[in-house]
Amino acid sequence: MPRILAADFGGTRLRAAVVTGDGVVEQRNIIDSPDQREGVLPIVLDLLERTASAAGGAFDACSIASAGLIDANRGRIIISPNIPGFRNLALVEPVAERLGVPVFIENDASAAALAEWRYGAGRGFNHLIHVTAGTGIGGGLVLGGRLYRGARGFAGELGHMVVDDGGPQCGCGARGCLEALVSGAAFERRATRLLRSGRSPLLAEVVGDETPGAVHLYNAARRGDILSEAEIRNAGHYLGIGLGSLMNLLNPEVITISGGLVAMGDMLFGSARDALKDMAYGPTSGVGIRFSELGDDAGLLGAAAVAEEHLQA
Ligand SMILES: [Zn+2]
User: Fold this and answer.
1) Which pLDDT tens digit goes with each residue over 199-241?
2) Is the same domain home to 198 and 235?
3) Does the pLDDT of residue 95 top 80, yes or no?
4) One domain for residues 15 and 42
5) Ligand 1 centre and the CA of 239: distance in Å?
6) Averaged pLDDT score across all residues of the chain
7) CA of 282 to the centre of ligand 1 (A)
8) How far is the CA of 168 from the centre of ligand 1 (A)?
9) Are residues 154 and 277 in the same domain?
10) Is residue 173 part of a domain?
11) Is it the case that residue 174 has pLDDT exceeding 70?
12) Counted domains in the chain
């Protein structure tokens, strides 16, 4: 069983821990993500070294799952939206020099897909589509029991699949991407628009003086607000269109979903399932949508799974 020094770098927190081959996570260290432009490499090295020395043993590898665009072949982060200091940062080489073990890096959504396949809701399957449904929408593909990276490692960006070319503007510049219609950020816009229309007093009551978002839409819908529920079901419909297209293209055995939007349960995903069934070309009866149960450790387990795949190659 390999022992991996695993790291999960997100926009809010940097996590590091030791993961053993059977998915046991130990010696967790968590710090706030740095917000400065310069000098983040020493912070990262310090976090990894502290975790390594606390665990006090030899490692087979260090593996980093990070948010953003990752050039895994050259071992660098190209850009990470919420961490300015990660821009064009060569990470693998200095970490390998410091720790003296092989170092791997991977996009966090791709790593999450491998985590579900190896340790989570996708265990026992060979072909899996994973969706990370949080503030943004991301994803990863495990095909034939291996992470599918594409030509340059950017495969699996399913949040930027266009499902309505007349739809709202997406942060990437296109219109009607899944992320512009279904993500946490999209629900913020949906809730704000509905609130301003004045047509939903119940939503206004639920929001109070907070910033309107997904959780308010969901709570208002659960209390019987038809317009809030319609927003969620409309978003689910588009999610189903995206997933249906992916199913027709890839013929997966299972779709796994992680992230904050999982809390919307059947209201969002039931509607997605209906749209998916309508547009699937082949039989879909055997293809389930399963929710992740890996929780906060998903990123660390993903990093470990990436290392294990590399070590076995
Ligand atoms: Zn987009």
Assistant:
1) 999 999 999 999 999 999 999 999 999 999 999 999 999 999 9
2) yes
3) yes
4) yes
5) 14
6) 94
7) 28
8) 10
9) yes
10) yes
11) yes
12) 2
Q: Are residues 92 and 144 in the same domain?
A: no
DSSP line for 140-199: EEEETTEE---SSS-TT-GGG-BS-TTSPBPTTS-BSBHHHHHSHHHHHHHHHHHHHHT-
297 CA → ligand 1 middle, Å: 27
Report CA(169)–ligand 1 centroid distance (Å): 8
If asked whether residues 268 and 149 sit together in one domain, one would say: yes
pLDDT score of 1: 78
- Output the CA 233–ligand 1 centroid distance in Å: 20
Distances (CA, A) of 18 to 23, 57, 219, 230: 10, 10, 38, 44
Q: What angle do CA 77, 81, 83 make, to 5 degrees?
A: 70
For ligand 1, the distance from its centroid to the CA atom of residue 137, given in whole angstroms, is: 9
Residue 251 has pLDDT above 70, yes or no: yes
Q: Which residue has the tokens 């308010």?
A: 216
Residues surrounding ion ligand 1 at CB below 5 Å: 160, 170, 172, 174, 177
Q: Mark whether 209 and 303 lie in a shared domain.
A: no
> Does position 286 have pLDDT exceeding 80, yes or no?
no
| Domain with 7 in it | 3-114+296-312
pLDDT at residue 142 tops 90: yes
Structural domain contains residue 254: yes
| CA gap 67, 15 in Å, rounded | 12
- List the CATH number of the domain containing 195: 3.30.420.40
- The answer to whether residues 134 and 250 belong to one domain is yes
Among 200, 197, 264, which residue's Cα sits nearest to residue 234?
A: 264
- Is residue 65 pLDDT above 70, yes or no? yes
CA of residue 232 to ligand 1 center, whole Å: 19
- Does any domain span residue 238? yes
Query: From ligand 1's centre to the CA of 155, what distance in Å?
Result: 14
pTM score of the predicted model: 0.92
User: For residue 179, how far is its CA from the centre of ligand 1 (angstroms)?
Assistant: 6
127 forms bridges with which residues in the sheet? Answer: none
Residues 83, 210 share a domain:
no
